[in-house]
């Protein structure tokens, strides 16, 4: 019972951290602000997350769990291009999570940022997963003649780049429609 309550409290803290980071960015977010949002003292919050960095990692891991339906990172065999389009549509319904992820990603490129290692490892894994998705869909060569490994970073860049454009101008950028257009480009002239 106590363990379940502790896990529930940790979840409340992570959700509050997502909100605070979305509002202020990682560097502007304080443990005190997160603690206040969940009705704890900063010392009480430290019982659950001993450092701001530990809380940040929990936020990033939670975001990945939401994307994969509760598991850790999805295995390459579970993704298909049409499911990636569904993920883009899902992200369009949760701007706060996308904003938090995007803010953390942007901040993580600076030296010494506590999320830098997380994102570096995550992108290596995502590129590998995207290459597997592309290989399952097209084989060893896409209609363009490029290999799945050549296109995987481009697919990843389109997904994340669309998120930034959509966050900045949601009324002008239809993220799901733009991603479907990109998939049409990947599939070549026969798919159009």
Automatic annotation (TrEMBL):
Pfam families: TetR_C_6 (PF13977), TetR_N (PF00440). Coiled coil: none annotated. Residues 30-49 bind DNA. The keyword DNA-binding applies. Residues 7-67 form the HTH tetR-type domain. InterPro entries: BetI_C, Homeodomain-like_sf, HTH-type_TetR-like_transc_reg, HTH_TetR, Tet_transcr_reg_TetR-rel_C_sf. Keywords: DNA-binding, Repressor, Transcription, Transcription regulation. PANTHER family: HTH-TYPE TRANSCRIPTIONAL REGULATOR BETI (PTHR30055:SF234), HTH-TYPE TRANSCRIPTIONAL REGULATOR RUTR (PTHR30055). This is TetR/AcrR family transcriptional regulator. It comes from Streptomyces flavotricini.
């Amino acid at each position: 019972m106590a363990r379940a309550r502790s896990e529930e409290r940790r979840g409340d803290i992570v959700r509050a951290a997502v909100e605070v980071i979305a509002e202020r960015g990682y560097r502007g977010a304080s443990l005190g602000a997160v603690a206040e949002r969940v009705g704890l003292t900063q010392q009480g919050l430290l019982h659950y997350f001993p450092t701001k960095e530990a809380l940040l990692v929990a936020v990033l891991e939670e975001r990945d769990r939401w994307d994969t339906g509760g598991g850790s990172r999805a295995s390459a065999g579970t993704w298909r291009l049409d499911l990636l389009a569904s993920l883009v549509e899902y992200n369009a319904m949760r701007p706060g999570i996308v904003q938090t992820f995007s803010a953390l990603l942007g901040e993580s490129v600076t030296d010494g940022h506590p999320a830098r290692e997380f994102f570096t490892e995550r992108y290596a894994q995502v590129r590998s997963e995207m290459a597997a998705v592309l290989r399952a869909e097209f084989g060893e060569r896409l209609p363009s003649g490029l290999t799945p490994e050549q296109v995987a970073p481009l697919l990843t860049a389109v997904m994340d780049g669309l998120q930034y454009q959509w966050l900045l101008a949601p009324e002008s950028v239809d993220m799901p429609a733009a991603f479907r257009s990109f998939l049409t480009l990947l599939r070549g002239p026969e798919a159009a």
